[in-house]
Amino acid sequence: MLRLSTTLSLLSLASLSPHHPRRLVRLRALAPAASSSPSARSLCLLEWGKVCRAVASFAGTAHGREATEKQLWGVEDVSYERSRRLLQETEAAVRLLGTSGGSFDFSGLDTVTVEAAIQCVSGGSVIKGQEAMAVVSLMLFVESLQVTIRAAMRQDEESHNLLMPLTETILEAVVNKSLVKSIQDIIDDDGSVKDTASPELRRYREQVQSLESRLCQLMDRLIRNSDSEASLSEVSIVNGRCCIKVTGDKSLSFDGLLLSSGSDAGSMIEPIVAVPLNDELQGARALVARAELDALSKLTDKILLELDNIQILLQETITLDKVTARAKYSIAYDGTLPDLYLPKFEHETVNTATDWPVSATSSAQLPKKPWKVFIPNAFHPLLLQQHQENLRRIKKDVASATAEIRRRRIYGQDIAEEDQLASDLDSMKNRVSKLERNHPIPVDFMIGEETTVLVITGPNTGGKTISLKTVGLASLMAKIGLYILASEPVKIPWFDAVYADIGDEQSLTQSLSTFSGHLKQIGAIRAQSTSQSLVLLDEVGAGTNPLEGAALGMSLLESFAEAGSFLTLATTHHGELKTLKYSNDSFENACVEFDEENLKPTFRILWGIPGRSNAINIAERLGLPLDIIESARHLLGTAGAEINALIMDMEKFKQEYDEQLQQAQHYLMFIRPVRISISSI
């Protein structure tokens, strides 16, 4: 009855848990197909799956990686309250990692083997030695984990309150030390059954050793006493029976049974005098196997009594591994705990006030302005990941090349090859320096409370699309409990969904052009977005007649501003869309900065400034004939030139303001200590 009830419990657990082995194959199906809902398609356009895999790689166990990726793919279904709990869990795990370090390394756990042990025992089978030792490793790890967590919680009351919700269940879990000792008394570290498991097992193994020794002596004597011209090369084992390998074709000095033969491999002969000993050895080995099975069977009964508790330990360990993966990812990329708030609508006016507690580790404060989004120095997570991986790979190559040169010098090997290695090493060091200089450029997102639609303009390859993806991924990361890869402080709203229309949406299967594909996606987004949604539109109104595209783009953005989203970010080349700010207070302009001296974008965003055209100036710097340049300026008209000049002045004033602000902040850092010292006097 006990085994039956435990089996039913396990089946129930497997049906609810994502950690069942048969569910491993189904994990990729969690990623939404490109033809599914607008929100699911948006996740694919933002490359959310790559972020999921990157975070999951920080989990130490196979089940932890699977559970992490599955949880991240479920970002669409996470409520605001759940998002807050996830962020609190991640913050607690970051605190634990800071105090314990290596104690939270789950990579030594074999959760797959533990689960196999649970299934084996619950199904009425006898547990294997390696499965039993995997259970021991789990129980000892949990015991060590409990000690580490309790030590961290005793540091101060804040740590206790922060860690308790995350670790309460695993702290209450019971580790049966008696069962651990029973397994260790019977099973060796390599999973084999110990001689001390039972007196019978020891006796039978000694009998096997004695018979094997006698057989070896007999075979050795037969080989040495053989006076035939046959080549008796060695003693071999065939199907567990001791025999002699013969490669010649002459007669033997002893009678034997032919077990196998081959022209190249020779013949395997079992001497007649060895048959009784071989038979006895086979019987002794059977007795050993039976004694080992008896010992494992008794051990299985003991594990069965603790099976429910072992299941709890496994599930809680996987859960903690999953949370720790989020924390390790956030630490590895120097993330910031976001101030995630739920907008409150009062009398049709949005209130972005939040009661979310500021992290104790953060001393940064938001500038005194009602911000809807405030993310300074935000990095695109995939670009930052790629940069760090490339840098890590090249540094590893440098270390290997340095070690090889040192080895060659020690052993005095070819100098010419050493010179080539030294040249390669210098080249790799230059690549390291270049990569360190070409660090991904962060983007500032500082959107005022009154803004509903932000229009970003600027040249191609200037970073507009990357900026859209960065804020979209940051919103998803905060919602699912990840730190945002930005500087402190970070304030961001909770979005019920993130919708994106980015890139080429041409559909050959549905005979849709690029323009039609975009319209279909935007139409679906407009139908499903709410006043709590984030909408990202790349090159809105593009792909058709410029006048019609601009008119359609203006109408779409006004629709989203009125009731289609909590925040819409749109990039465009249509100058008409920049004018919406001057007729609607819900709109704001921004542009990507362009370095006219070097004719390349700086990838910085200038807020509150509409983008200006650089095409004619670029053409002039590239050496296009002057008459063509002047004709183009004439066709553009004086009004367009005056607008560009005005925008240029605004950009200049903005740059001067930023420089003066940085200087003021720098001076404040030195003034504050002086004030403290004077007041103390």
Descriptive overview:
With 681 residues, the chain is α/β, with parallel strands linked by helices. The chain has 5 domains: 38-194 and 295-336, Orthogonal Bundle (MutS, DNA mismatch repair protein, Chain A, domain 3); 199-290; 337-343 and 368-378 and 440-611, P-loop containing nucleotide triphosphate hydrolases (Rossmann fold), CATH 3.40.50; 381-438; 638-680. 55% of the residues lie in helices and 13% in strands. It has 20 helices and 16 strands. It has helices spanning 2-16, 38-45, 48-56, 62-73, 80-100, 111-122, 129-153, 157-172, 177-186, 199-225, 275-305, 307-332, 381-411, 415-437, 464-479, 514-528, 546-564, 615-621, 626-636, 638-680; strands at 232-238, 241-246, 256-260, 267-271, 339-341, 344-346, 349-351, 371-378, 443-448, 453-457, 491-493, 497-501, 533-537, 567-572, 587-595, 600-607. It has a 6-stranded mixed β-sheet, sandwiched between helices. A 4-stranded antiparallel β-sheet has the order 1-2-4-3. A two-stranded parallel sheet has the order 5-11. Helix 6 (111-122) runs antiparallel to helix 12. It starts with a helix and ends with a helix.
